[in-house]
Model the fold of this input.
Amino acid sequence: MRILPVTDSNIYRCRHTGQLWRIHGTVEDGYYILFHCDENGNYDPPSDYSEEFAPWEKDHLEIYRKI
Done:
């Protein structure tokens, strides 16, 4: 699986859980790779929890802060 970079550096908050996320990239099938982050947007991709989001699931996220 190849991860394609994205230019979106915003911090997002899940509307359902309140968890903060940063988009790390997308995979070839269009899914987003997101990592948990803190309120300053800090995350460590090799060690932090990540999850794949389908493109249609991005509406579960709202911009928490623009970086």
Notes: Strands lie at 3-4, 11-14, 20-27, 32-36, 50-53, 61-65.
